[in-house]
Amino acid sequence: MLRFYHAPWSRSSGILWLLEELAVSYELVTIDIRGSVPESYRDIQPNKKVPAVDVDGTIVTERAAICLYLGERFPEAGLVPAPGDSSRAAFLSALIYADSVFDPAVAARAQGWTYEPNNFSFGAFDDMVRHVDRLLSTRPYIAGGAFSAADTQFGSGIHYALDVLKVLPDRPVFRAYLQRLTERPAFQRFMARDLELAKAAGMAT
Ligand SMILES: N[C@@H](CCC(=O)N[C@@H](CS)C(=O)NCC(=O)O)C(=O)O
């Protein structure tokens, strides 16, 4: 049994998309991160954040770890290159970069922080933008020629940074990438499900 702890329109939405790409059945538990989260949820996620998954009694937290774990647990979907595969290095680098560099650099920019890039592991916002632009200018997907679990993370992140926070430069290369992703049936299913959940939570009408 796969249980997914989620809050609509949040950082866990990329995992909702991943689950739709994997085409597996799951039980969704909504966590009210904008309201009150019970202390007991710390046993699932130590910081009371979403996402988290419980797969047959094994709990996995952190988006990159969840992508890797689920992608390897359901290999038939082909979303995580196997050890030894030539695309594995690019995949792992992109997957981890999404959470450890892209996300904090975007958040710092959205908050208007000024900081010394050498003092923070995620470095300079402009370096991050240059890197992501270069990757997507040379390949259709973030880790190469094939869609992978790294795209569910990058796709959600780029969408949020461009269209919600509006801190990422609005470049054709980012728009073309989002266009490729939004055409996917699993993307459309996940967006519809998240909207339904947002409505149920009173966040949308
Ligand atoms: N490092 C975590 C971060 C997850 C995260 O930031 N989740 C946000 C959702 S936008 C959250 O649950 N925030 C609620 C809170 O901080 O109280 C991951 O990558 O899984």
| Structural domains: how many | 2
Spans where pLDDT lies below 50 across 5 or more residues: none
What is the helical fraction, as a range of percent?
A: 40-55%
Give the ligands present. glutathione
What is the count of helical runs?
7
Radius of gyration: 17 Å
Q: How would you classify the helix and strand content by structural class? A: alpha+beta
Question: N-to-C SSE series?
Answer: EHEEEHHHHHH
Quantity of strands, as a count: 4
Main sheet: strands, sense, barrel: 4 strands, mixed
State mean pLDDT (0 to 100 scale).
Answer: 97
Output the CATH topology of the largest domain.
Answer: Glutathione S-transferase Yfyf (Class Pi), Chain A, domain 2
The CATH class name of the largest domain reads Mainly Alpha
Q: Return the CATH architecture of the largest domain.
A: Up-down Bundle
Measured by DSSP, the beta-strand proportion falls in: 5-15%
Morphology: globular
Strand order of the largest sheet: 2-1-3-4
Explain what you see.
The protein has 205 residues and is of the alpha+beta class. The protein folds into two domains: 2-78 and 187-200, Glutaredoxin; 88-184, Up-down Bundle (Glutathione S-transferase Yfyf (Class Pi), Chain A, domain 2), CATH 1.20.1050. The chain is built from seven helices and four strands, in the order E-H-E-E-E-H-H-H-H-H-H. The chain has helices at residues 13-22, 63-73, 88-110, 125-138, 149-164, 172-182, 185-200, and strands at residues 2-6, 27-30, 52-55, 58-61. A four-stranded mixed sheet has the order 2-1-3-4, with helices on one face. The radius of gyration is 17 Å and the shape is globular. The mean pLDDT is 97. The site of glutathione has 10 residues, from loops.
